[in-house]
Automatic annotation (TrEMBL):
Pfam families, per database record: Bac_luciferase
Boundaries of every Luciferase-like domain copy: 22-392
UniProt similarity note: Belongs to the NtaA/SnaA/DszA monooxygenase family.
Protein name: NtaA/DmoA family FMN-dependent monooxygenase
Keyword vocabulary terms for this entry: Flavoprotein, FMN, Monooxygenase, Oxidoreductase
Native source organism of the sequence: Gordonia rubripertincta (Rhodococcus corallinus)
UniProt-listed Enzyme Commission number(s): 1.14.-.-
Transmembrane segments: none
GO MF term (any one): monooxygenase activity
Superkingdom in the source lineage: Bacteria
First and last residue of the signal peptide: none
């Protein structure tokens, strides 16, 4: 059976995706940027807009890291404002489960779901980062092996709060002003090693019953968390082979939790570069990568792995001959790196072997190892490739990350989307009202409790 392609848009966050030197690059804090981006996504009939968060200005070598986006407005504030300028587009926000409290987050997302008539989604993330946690009362820090345990319980509590209201709990009585069908509506109590809370949840059941749940972790714990709890997973595995392996692995875990194959969507992030011809697009993509990874940016990224000050290193020369320093990363603060998951010395050895085999300078190597999956080609080539990935079970669709904000989606919306529609694999109009409708997720999971 031919699958339908799902598309979403990611407003670039704390990264160096955006090419700031391009005259078309706009603000990451002015509301007009978010409005333009969201309206383009809705015009293209995308499922949702995805907005990440940055909770502390990152540092490197003891100073603010100023080579990419260093800060922007609060995620919930932006999404609530976008509710007023969109009608169908889903609104997805990253909110951290390590630093927040279930009651507050559940209330915020239930409210957003009401404001949008059922278009809210929560990307549940965790944090290992003590540096960021210093901003928060409880320190926010959890050992790596405990953070998914808290996330699971956090989501469990939030779900209990959403489910504390039934669909028919609001019964209006104009004379008395009473709007509740039972005296204990919204009552809850939850006690475990993370939370000890009780009270009454004060937001009625929202149009989706519960917001759509996203997850973005790629570790073993992250995959299990997604298989057990998430409706969609924001993946980084977007080459064909890696995508198929990840897709098979995560979908294969669903049955353990009594879930069907279609109850979890796999949506990798992907960049794109379009041109009149494939050759034009390839040339343009090369120039964009050079702009995204300057010599200075390459050195900063190198320092994150090497855990050393490499400011005197030549980015147009070979990789450093010295090895990375083992132990805790004391150079980069507030940024995840390969040090979290692997021995930096092993990664450095792999990089050296690749640089030697392909005759790459430091900067050229960093460009290669930091590049996300990019769809590069004419609109026809990109439309064909996206559809091929989806039909081959490498993904269920893609979350697109343009290199220009806010107008970077415009060309894709005007050229690639119509070709997908002609193939019959992408909607020409929204067929439902809620984000669950757009994603093809069963409403039965949120039926009256």
């Amino acid at each position: 059976m031919t699958k339908q392609v799902h598309l979403a848009a990611h407003f670039p966050g704390v990264n160096n995706t955006t090419v700031w030197s391009d005259p078309a690059a706009g603000s990451h804090i002015e509301f007009d940027s978010f409005t333009h981006f969201a309206r383009t996504a809705e015009r293209a009939r995308f499922d949702f807009l995805f907005l990440a968060e940055g909770l502390r200005l990152r540092e490197q070598n003891g100073v603010i890291y100023d080579l990419d986006v260093v800060g922007r407005p609060d995620t919930f504030t932006i999404l609530a404002a976008l509710a007023a300028v969109t009608d169908k587009l889903g609104l997805t926000g990253t909110i951290n489960s390590t630093f927040n409290e279930p009651y507050e987050v559940a209330r915020q997302f239930a409210s957003l779901d009401h404001l949008t008539d059922g278009r809210a989604a929560w990307n549940v993330v965790t944090s290992w980062d003590e540096f960021t946690g210093e901003n928060f009362r409880r320190g926010g820090y959890l050992p790596k092996d405990e953070r998914y345990g808290r996330a699971r319980k956090f989501l469990e509590v939030a779900t209990e709060l959403w489910d504390s209201w039934k669909a028919d709990d609001i019964v209006a009585d104009k004379e008395s002003g009473i709007f509740l069908s039972r005296p204990d509506v919204g009552s809850f109590r939850h006690t475990d090693d993370q939370f000890d809370i009780s009270g009454q949840f004060n937001v009625p059941r929202s149009p989706q019953g519960r917001p759509v749940i996203f997850q973005a972790g790629d570790s073993e714990d992250g995959r299990e968390f997604a298989a057990a709890r998430a409706d969609a997973i924001f993946s980084r595995h977007s080459t064909l082979d890696d995508g198929q392996a990840f897709y098979k692995d995560v979908k294969g875990r669903l049955a353990t939790y009594g879930r069907g194959h279609d109850e979890l969507l796999i949506l990798p992030a992907a960049t794109f570069v379009l041109g009149d011809t494939d050759a034009d697009a390839a040339e343009r993509a090369h120039e964009i990568r050079l702009q995204q990874v300057s010599g200075q940016t390459a050195i900063k990224f190198l320092e994150q792995l090497w855990n050393r000050d490499l400011s005197d290193h030549d980015p147009d020369g070979p990789l450093p001959t010295i090895d990375p320093l083992p132990g805790e990363n004391t150079v980069a603060k507030g940024r995840a790196s390969v040090r979290i998951h692997r021995d930096p010395r092993d990664v450095a050895a792999e990089w050296r072997a690749r640089a030697e085999a392909e005759n790459l300078t430091t900067r050229e190597l960093i460009i290669e190892v930091t590049g996300r999956q990019a769809f590069i080609g004419s609109p026809q080539t990109v439309a064909d490739t996206i559809n091929d990935f989806v039909q081959a079970d490498a993904s269920d669709g893609f979350i697109l990350v343009p290199h220009i904000t806010p107008g970077g989606l415009d060309e894709f919306a005007d050229t690639v989307v119509p070709l997908l529609q002609e193939k019959g694999v992408y909607r020409t109009e929204y067929e439902g009202e809620t984000l669950r409708d757009h994603l093809g997720l069963s409403q039965s999971v949120v039926a009256g409790v």
